[in-house]
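Reproducibility note. Readers wishing to regenerate the assembly model reported in the main text can use the exact inputs given here. Chain order matters: entities are listed in the order in which they were concatenated for prediction.
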Amino acid sequence: MGRPRTPLLDRERITTTALELVDEQGEFSVPQIARRLGAQTASVYHHVDGRDGIVELLRERVCDAIDDGAFELTPWDAAMAAWARSYRAAFAAHPRTIPLLTASPVRAPKVLQQYEKAVARLLDEGFPLADVMPVIIGLENLVLGSALDMAAPEMMWELADETATPQLARALGAVSESRADRAFEMALAGYLTHVRALLDTDRP
Amino acid sequence: MGRPRTPLLDRERITTTALELVDEQGEFSVPQIARRLGAQTASVYHHVDGRDGIVELLRERVCDAIDDGAFELTPWDAAMAAWARSYRAAFAAHPRTIPLLTASPVRAPKVLQQYEKAVARLLDEGFPLADVMPVIIGLENLVLGSALDMAAPEMMWELADETATPQLARALGAVSESRADRAFEMALAGYLTHVRALLDTDRP
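Running the prediction on these inputs yields the following C-alpha coordinates for the assembly.
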Protein backbone atom coordinates (compact mmCIF):
# COMPACT_ATOMS: atom_id res chain seq x y z
CA MET A 1 0.00 0.00 0.00
CA GLY A 2 1.72 3.17 -1.17
CA ARG A 3 0.50 6.71 -1.06
CA PRO A 4 -2.44 7.46 -3.35
CA ARG A 5 -1.20 8.50 -6.79
CA THR A 6 -3.38 11.61 -7.05
CA PRO A 7 -2.92 14.12 -4.28
CA LEU A 8 -6.05 14.53 -2.20
CA LEU A 9 -6.15 18.28 -2.70
CA ASP A 10 -5.15 20.59 -5.48
CA ARG A 11 -6.73 23.62 -7.07
CA GLU A 12 -8.20 21.58 -9.92
CA ARG A 13 -10.03 19.20 -7.61
CA ILE A 14 -11.17 22.03 -5.34
CA THR A 15 -12.57 23.85 -8.39
CA THR A 16 -14.31 20.73 -9.71
CA THR A 17 -15.91 20.11 -6.32
CA ALA A 18 -17.01 23.74 -5.91
CA LEU A 19 -18.57 23.61 -9.38
CA GLU A 20 -20.45 20.40 -8.55
CA LEU A 21 -21.83 22.02 -5.40
CA VAL A 22 -22.93 25.17 -7.24
CA ASP A 23 -24.54 23.11 -10.02
CA GLU A 24 -26.48 21.18 -7.36
CA GLN A 25 -27.28 23.86 -4.78
CA GLY A 26 -26.55 27.27 -6.27
CA GLU A 27 -23.86 27.81 -3.61
CA PHE A 28 -20.76 26.28 -2.07
CA SER A 29 -18.98 26.55 1.26
CA VAL A 30 -15.37 25.74 2.01
CA PRO A 31 -16.34 23.19 4.72
CA GLN A 32 -18.59 21.44 2.17
CA ILE A 33 -15.72 21.21 -0.31
CA ALA A 34 -13.45 19.83 2.43
CA ARG A 35 -16.05 17.23 3.42
CA ARG A 36 -16.49 15.98 -0.16
CA LEU A 37 -12.74 15.69 -0.60
CA GLY A 38 -12.25 14.01 2.77
CA ALA A 39 -10.00 16.83 3.94
CA GLN A 40 -9.89 19.41 6.71
CA THR A 41 -11.33 22.84 5.96
CA ALA A 42 -8.00 24.43 6.92
CA SER A 43 -6.22 22.28 4.33
CA VAL A 44 -8.49 23.59 1.58
CA TYR A 45 -7.63 27.16 2.57
CA HIS A 46 -3.97 26.21 2.25
CA HIS A 47 -4.43 25.78 -1.54
CA VAL A 48 -6.58 28.77 -2.45
CA ASP A 49 -6.83 32.48 -1.78
CA GLY A 50 -9.86 32.24 0.50
CA ARG A 51 -13.45 31.81 -0.57
CA ASP A 52 -13.08 34.65 -3.10
CA GLY A 53 -10.18 32.77 -4.62
CA ILE A 54 -12.43 29.78 -5.22
CA VAL A 55 -15.02 32.04 -6.88
CA GLU A 56 -12.29 33.21 -9.27
CA LEU A 57 -11.24 29.61 -9.96
CA LEU A 58 -14.87 28.87 -10.84
CA ARG A 59 -14.96 31.90 -13.14
CA GLU A 60 -11.80 30.69 -14.89
CA ARG A 61 -13.17 27.17 -15.25
CA VAL A 62 -16.49 28.26 -16.78
CA CYS A 63 -14.89 30.92 -19.02
CA ASP A 64 -12.31 28.42 -20.31
CA ALA A 65 -15.08 27.09 -22.55
CA ILE A 66 -15.51 30.50 -24.21
CA ASP A 67 -13.81 30.68 -27.60
CA ASP A 68 -11.86 33.93 -27.54
CA GLY A 69 -10.49 33.11 -30.96
CA ALA A 70 -13.84 34.59 -32.03
CA PHE A 71 -12.28 38.05 -31.77
CA GLU A 72 -10.15 37.34 -34.82
CA LEU A 73 -13.18 37.00 -37.09
CA THR A 74 -14.14 39.76 -39.49
CA PRO A 75 -16.19 41.84 -39.67
CA TRP A 76 -16.23 42.96 -36.03
CA ASP A 77 -19.92 42.23 -35.53
CA ALA A 78 -19.43 38.63 -36.67
CA ALA A 79 -16.64 38.44 -34.07
CA MET A 80 -18.91 39.78 -31.32
CA ALA A 81 -21.74 37.45 -32.35
CA ALA A 82 -19.45 34.40 -32.28
CA TRP A 83 -18.07 35.43 -28.88
CA ALA A 84 -21.63 35.93 -27.57
CA ARG A 85 -22.79 32.49 -28.77
CA SER A 86 -19.80 30.75 -27.25
CA TYR A 87 -20.14 32.74 -24.00
CA ARG A 88 -23.81 31.79 -23.81
CA ALA A 89 -23.08 28.07 -24.31
CA ALA A 90 -20.38 28.11 -21.60
CA PHE A 91 -22.73 29.58 -19.01
CA ALA A 92 -25.75 27.57 -20.09
CA ALA A 93 -23.75 24.48 -19.04
CA HIS A 94 -23.51 25.93 -15.50
CA PRO A 95 -26.36 28.42 -15.12
CA ARG A 96 -26.28 28.48 -11.34
CA THR A 97 -22.79 29.97 -11.39
CA ILE A 98 -24.25 33.11 -13.02
CA PRO A 99 -25.58 34.94 -9.94
CA LEU A 100 -22.53 33.88 -7.95
CA LEU A 101 -20.06 35.18 -10.53
CA THR A 102 -21.92 38.37 -11.38
CA ALA A 103 -22.04 39.27 -7.67
CA SER A 104 -18.28 39.59 -7.26
CA PRO A 105 -15.58 41.45 -9.22
CA VAL A 106 -13.63 39.79 -12.02
CA ARG A 107 -10.05 39.21 -10.85
CA ALA A 108 -9.00 36.01 -12.67
CA PRO A 109 -6.14 37.02 -15.03
CA LYS A 110 -7.23 34.64 -17.81
CA VAL A 111 -10.73 36.11 -17.78
CA LEU A 112 -9.40 39.68 -17.73
CA GLN A 113 -7.42 38.74 -20.86
CA GLN A 114 -10.69 37.85 -22.61
CA TYR A 115 -12.04 41.31 -21.81
CA GLU A 116 -8.76 42.83 -23.03
CA LYS A 117 -9.31 41.14 -26.39
CA ALA A 118 -12.91 42.31 -26.60
CA VAL A 119 -11.93 45.91 -25.76
CA ALA A 120 -9.03 45.88 -28.25
CA ARG A 121 -11.29 44.60 -31.03
CA LEU A 122 -13.86 47.36 -30.48
CA LEU A 123 -11.22 50.10 -30.19
CA ASP A 124 -9.58 48.89 -33.41
CA GLU A 125 -12.94 49.17 -35.08
CA GLY A 126 -13.19 52.83 -34.11
CA PHE A 127 -15.60 52.73 -31.17
CA PRO A 128 -15.15 55.75 -28.88
CA LEU A 129 -13.41 54.77 -25.66
CA ALA A 130 -16.39 55.68 -23.47
CA ASP A 131 -18.72 53.40 -25.47
CA VAL A 132 -16.61 50.25 -25.28
CA MET A 133 -17.57 48.95 -21.84
CA PRO A 134 -21.30 49.75 -22.24
CA VAL A 135 -21.28 47.85 -25.56
CA ILE A 136 -19.63 44.83 -23.91
CA ILE A 137 -21.84 44.92 -20.81
CA GLY A 138 -25.04 45.24 -22.85
CA LEU A 139 -24.01 42.16 -24.81
CA GLU A 140 -23.23 40.29 -21.59
CA ASN A 141 -26.67 41.16 -20.18
CA LEU A 142 -28.23 39.51 -23.18
CA VAL A 143 -25.91 36.51 -23.08
CA LEU A 144 -26.38 35.77 -19.39
CA GLY A 145 -30.15 36.27 -19.43
CA SER A 146 -30.34 33.90 -22.37
CA ALA A 147 -28.00 31.34 -20.75
CA LEU A 148 -30.47 31.15 -17.87
CA ASP A 149 -33.27 30.68 -20.38
CA MET A 150 -31.41 27.81 -22.06
CA ALA A 151 -31.43 26.04 -18.72
CA ALA A 152 -35.18 26.62 -18.32
CA PRO A 153 -37.83 23.95 -18.95
CA GLU A 154 -38.87 23.62 -22.59
CA MET A 155 -42.48 24.25 -21.51
CA MET A 156 -41.94 27.43 -19.51
CA TRP A 157 -45.60 28.38 -19.08
CA GLU A 158 -48.09 25.91 -17.63
CA LEU A 159 -51.66 26.98 -18.06
CA ALA A 160 -54.00 25.13 -15.69
CA ASP A 161 -56.91 27.01 -17.26
CA GLU A 162 -56.40 28.17 -20.84
CA THR A 163 -59.56 30.26 -20.78
CA ALA A 164 -58.03 32.52 -18.10
CA THR A 165 -55.26 33.59 -20.50
CA PRO A 166 -56.59 32.88 -24.00
CA GLN A 167 -54.13 35.06 -25.93
CA LEU A 168 -51.15 33.58 -24.10
CA ALA A 169 -52.48 30.10 -24.90
CA ARG A 170 -52.65 31.00 -28.61
CA ALA A 171 -49.18 32.56 -28.64
CA LEU A 172 -47.69 29.52 -26.89
CA GLY A 173 -49.40 27.24 -29.40
CA ALA A 174 -47.59 29.07 -32.20
CA VAL A 175 -44.12 28.73 -30.68
CA SER A 176 -41.82 26.36 -32.53
CA GLU A 177 -39.11 24.28 -30.93
CA SER A 178 -35.92 26.08 -29.90
CA ARG A 179 -37.76 29.11 -28.55
CA ALA A 180 -34.70 30.04 -26.50
CA ASP A 181 -32.40 30.08 -29.53
CA ARG A 182 -34.86 32.05 -31.61
CA ALA A 183 -35.31 34.72 -28.92
CA PHE A 184 -31.57 34.99 -28.37
CA GLU A 185 -30.75 35.34 -32.06
CA MET A 186 -33.47 37.99 -32.40
CA ALA A 187 -32.11 39.97 -29.46
CA LEU A 188 -28.50 39.55 -30.61
CA ALA A 189 -29.27 40.73 -34.14
CA GLY A 190 -31.14 43.73 -32.74
CA TYR A 191 -28.36 44.64 -30.41
CA LEU A 192 -25.62 44.43 -33.01
CA THR A 193 -27.66 46.42 -35.53
CA HIS A 194 -28.11 49.15 -32.94
CA VAL A 195 -24.43 49.17 -31.98
CA ARG A 196 -23.44 49.28 -35.67
CA ALA A 197 -25.62 52.37 -36.09
CA LEU A 198 -23.88 54.02 -33.12
CA LEU A 199 -20.53 53.36 -34.73
CA ASP A 200 -21.66 54.85 -38.04
CA THR A 201 -22.90 57.97 -36.22
CA ASP A 202 -19.59 58.37 -34.42
CA ARG A 203 -17.46 58.00 -37.53
CA PRO A 204 -16.29 61.28 -39.04
CA MET B 1 -52.13 34.38 28.04
CA GLY B 2 -54.33 34.06 24.98
CA ARG B 3 -53.39 32.76 21.57
CA PRO B 4 -50.91 34.87 19.61
CA ARG B 5 -52.70 37.44 17.49
CA THR B 6 -50.84 36.63 14.30
CA PRO B 7 -51.05 33.02 13.29
CA LEU B 8 -47.67 31.32 13.29
CA LEU B 9 -48.04 30.16 9.72
CA ASP B 10 -49.72 31.52 6.67
CA ARG B 11 -48.77 31.77 3.03
CA GLU B 12 -47.58 35.37 3.38
CA ARG B 13 -45.16 34.54 6.18
CA ILE B 14 -43.95 31.39 4.42
CA THR B 15 -43.29 33.44 1.26
CA THR B 16 -41.48 36.18 3.19
CA THR B 17 -39.27 33.62 4.90
CA ALA B 18 -38.50 31.76 1.66
CA LEU B 19 -37.55 35.08 0.04
CA GLU B 20 -35.23 35.96 2.94
CA LEU B 21 -33.52 32.58 2.59
CA VAL B 22 -33.09 32.93 -1.18
CA ASP B 23 -31.76 36.49 -0.80
CA GLU B 24 -29.21 35.19 1.70
CA GLN B 25 -28.28 31.78 0.27
CA GLY B 26 -29.61 31.52 -3.27
CA GLU B 27 -31.83 28.63 -2.15
CA PHE B 28 -34.46 27.60 0.39
CA SER B 29 -35.66 24.35 1.85
CA VAL B 30 -38.99 23.66 3.49
CA PRO B 31 -37.32 22.48 6.75
CA GLN B 32 -35.35 25.76 6.86
CA ILE B 33 -38.56 27.76 6.51
CA ALA B 34 -40.17 25.70 9.27
CA ARG B 35 -37.19 26.25 11.59
CA ARG B 36 -37.23 30.03 11.08
CA LEU B 37 -40.94 30.15 11.80
CA GLY B 38 -40.68 27.85 14.80
CA ALA B 39 -42.98 25.32 13.17
CA GLN B 40 -42.90 21.70 12.07
CA THR B 41 -41.98 20.99 8.44
CA ALA B 42 -45.23 19.08 8.01
CA SER B 43 -47.20 22.17 9.13
CA VAL B 44 -45.58 24.26 6.41
CA TYR B 45 -46.62 21.70 3.79
CA HIS B 46 -50.16 22.03 5.13
CA HIS B 47 -50.32 25.62 3.84
CA VAL B 48 -48.68 25.33 0.43
CA ASP B 49 -48.71 23.11 -2.62
CA GLY B 50 -45.31 21.51 -1.96
CA ARG B 51 -41.94 23.04 -2.64
CA ASP B 52 -43.05 23.99 -6.18
CA GLY B 53 -45.95 25.88 -4.66
CA ILE B 54 -43.52 27.98 -2.63
CA VAL B 55 -41.50 28.73 -5.78
CA GLU B 56 -44.71 30.04 -7.36
CA LEU B 57 -45.48 32.14 -4.28
CA LEU B 58 -41.98 33.64 -4.61
CA ARG B 59 -42.62 34.35 -8.30
CA GLU B 60 -45.88 36.10 -7.44
CA ARG B 61 -44.23 38.15 -4.69
CA VAL B 62 -41.35 39.37 -6.87
CA CYS B 63 -43.58 40.01 -9.91
CA ASP B 64 -46.07 41.99 -7.81
CA ALA B 65 -43.58 44.87 -8.04
CA ILE B 66 -43.79 44.88 -11.86
CA ASP B 67 -46.07 47.64 -13.16
CA ASP B 68 -48.31 45.92 -15.68
CA GLY B 69 -50.14 49.21 -16.17
CA ALA B 70 -47.22 49.84 -18.53
CA PHE B 71 -49.08 47.88 -21.21
CA GLU B 72 -51.61 50.69 -21.50
CA LEU B 73 -48.98 53.18 -22.70
CA THR B 74 -48.71 54.19 -26.34
CA PRO B 75 -46.95 53.66 -28.63
CA TRP B 76 -46.44 49.92 -28.07
CA ASP B 77 -42.64 50.19 -27.84
CA ALA B 78 -42.94 52.75 -25.03
CA ALA B 79 -45.21 50.23 -23.28
CA MET B 80 -42.67 47.43 -23.70
CA ALA B 81 -39.80 49.68 -22.54
CA ALA B 82 -41.73 50.73 -19.41
CA TRP B 83 -42.60 47.12 -18.65
CA ALA B 84 -38.95 46.10 -19.14
CA ARG B 85 -37.65 48.82 -16.79
CA SER B 86 -40.14 47.94 -14.09
CA TYR B 87 -39.49 44.19 -14.55
CA ARG B 88 -35.73 44.83 -14.23
CA ALA B 89 -36.14 46.84 -11.03
CA ALA B 90 -38.34 44.15 -9.44
CA PHE B 91 -35.75 41.43 -10.06
CA ALA B 92 -32.75 43.61 -9.24
CA ALA B 93 -34.21 43.83 -5.72
CA HIS B 94 -33.99 40.00 -5.46
CA PRO B 95 -31.39 38.85 -8.00
CA ARG B 96 -30.85 35.45 -6.43
CA THR B 97 -34.45 34.49 -7.19
CA ILE B 98 -33.61 34.70 -10.91
CA PRO B 99 -31.99 31.28 -11.47
CA LEU B 100 -34.53 29.66 -9.15
CA LEU B 101 -37.52 31.12 -10.99
CA THR B 102 -36.18 30.66 -14.51
CA ALA B 103 -35.54 26.98 -13.76
CA SER B 104 -39.19 26.07 -13.23
CA PRO B 105 -42.34 26.70 -15.25
CA VAL B 106 -44.57 29.70 -14.62
CA ARG B 107 -47.81 28.55 -12.99
CA ALA B 108 -48.81 31.47 -10.74
CA PRO B 109 -52.13 32.81 -12.15
CA LYS B 110 -51.27 36.46 -11.40
CA VAL B 111 -48.00 36.16 -13.30
CA LEU B 112 -49.67 34.38 -16.22
CA GLN B 113 -52.04 37.36 -16.37
CA GLN B 114 -49.05 39.68 -16.89
CA TYR B 115 -47.96 37.57 -19.84
CA GLU B 116 -51.53 37.62 -21.16
CA LYS B 117 -51.39 41.43 -21.17
CA ALA B 118 -48.00 41.47 -22.93
CA VAL B 119 -49.22 39.02 -25.60
CA ALA B 120 -52.47 40.93 -26.12
CA ARG B 121 -50.60 44.24 -26.55
CA LEU B 122 -48.28 42.78 -29.20
CA LEU B 123 -51.11 41.02 -31.07
CA ASP B 124 -53.14 44.26 -31.08
CA GLU B 125 -50.15 45.98 -32.61
CA GLY B 126 -50.14 43.52 -35.49
CA PHE B 127 -47.28 41.19 -34.58
CA PRO B 128 -47.64 37.76 -36.22
CA LEU B 129 -48.71 35.15 -33.69
CA ALA B 130 -45.50 33.11 -34.07
CA ASP B 131 -43.33 36.15 -33.28
CA VAL B 132 -45.03 37.16 -30.05
CA MET B 133 -43.36 34.76 -27.61
CA PRO B 134 -39.85 35.18 -29.13
CA VAL B 135 -40.23 38.97 -28.83
CA ILE B 136 -41.24 38.67 -25.16
CA ILE B 137 -38.56 36.11 -24.31
CA GLY B 138 -35.80 38.13 -25.99
CA LEU B 139 -36.84 41.13 -23.91
CA GLU B 140 -36.84 39.02 -20.76
CA ASN B 141 -33.31 37.74 -21.51
CA LEU B 142 -32.12 41.32 -21.60
CA VAL B 143 -34.06 42.31 -18.49
CA LEU B 144 -32.89 39.41 -16.34
CA GLY B 145 -29.26 39.63 -17.44
CA SER B 146 -29.31 43.30 -16.60
CA ALA B 147 -31.06 42.76 -13.26
CA LEU B 148 -28.14 40.54 -12.27
CA ASP B 149 -25.77 43.27 -13.41
CA MET B 150 -27.57 45.86 -11.24
CA ALA B 151 -26.81 43.66 -8.25
CA ALA B 152 -23.12 43.46 -9.24
CA PRO B 153 -20.35 45.49 -7.59
CA GLU B 154 -19.93 48.99 -9.03
CA MET B 155 -16.28 48.13 -9.75
CA MET B 156 -16.81 44.88 -11.62
CA TRP B 157 -13.24 44.48 -12.92
CA GLU B 158 -10.32 44.54 -10.53
CA LEU B 159 -6.97 44.82 -12.27
CA ALA B 160 -4.09 43.78 -10.01
CA ASP B 161 -1.71 44.67 -12.84
CA GLU B 162 -2.95 47.28 -15.32
CA THR B 163 -0.06 46.63 -17.70
CA ALA B 164 -1.35 43.08 -18.31
CA THR B 165 -4.59 44.44 -19.80
CA PRO B 166 -3.80 48.02 -20.89
CA GLN B 167 -6.77 48.52 -23.21
CA LEU B 168 -9.21 47.20 -20.63
CA ALA B 169 -7.67 49.61 -18.09
CA ARG B 170 -8.25 52.55 -20.47
CA ALA B 171 -11.80 51.49 -21.30
CA LEU B 172 -12.64 51.11 -17.60
CA GLY B 173 -11.16 54.55 -16.91
CA ALA B 174 -13.60 56.04 -19.43
CA VAL B 175 -16.71 54.46 -17.91
CA SER B 176 -19.01 56.90 -16.19
CA GLU B 177 -21.17 56.10 -13.19
CA SER B 178 -24.31 54.08 -13.79
CA ARG B 179 -22.60 51.74 -16.25
CA ALA B 180 -25.34 49.16 -15.68
CA ASP B 181 -28.11 51.60 -16.60
CA ARG B 182 -26.27 52.83 -19.67
CA ALA B 183 -25.65 49.30 -20.97
CA PHE B 184 -29.27 48.28 -20.34
CA GLU B 185 -30.73 51.32 -22.09
CA MET B 186 -28.40 50.73 -25.05
CA ALA B 187 -29.45 47.09 -25.32
CA LEU B 188 -33.14 47.92 -24.82
CA ALA B 189 -33.11 50.60 -27.50
CA GLY B 190 -31.35 48.24 -29.90
CA TYR B 191 -33.78 45.46 -29.25
CA LEU B 192 -36.88 47.58 -29.69
CA THR B 193 -35.53 49.14 -32.88
CA HIS B 194 -34.95 45.68 -34.29
CA VAL B 195 -38.37 44.42 -33.26
CA ARG B 196 -39.97 47.55 -34.77
CA ALA B 197 -38.25 46.77 -38.06
CA LEU B 198 -39.63 43.20 -37.95
CA LEU B 199 -43.11 44.60 -37.49
CA ASP B 200 -42.73 46.99 -40.42
CA THR B 201 -41.52 44.10 -42.62
CA ASP B 202 -44.50 41.97 -41.67
CA ARG B 203 -47.06 44.67 -42.32
CA PRO B 204 -48.75 44.47 -45.70
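We highlight two features of this model. Chain B has a mean pLDDT of 90. Chain B is about 65% helix and 0% strand.
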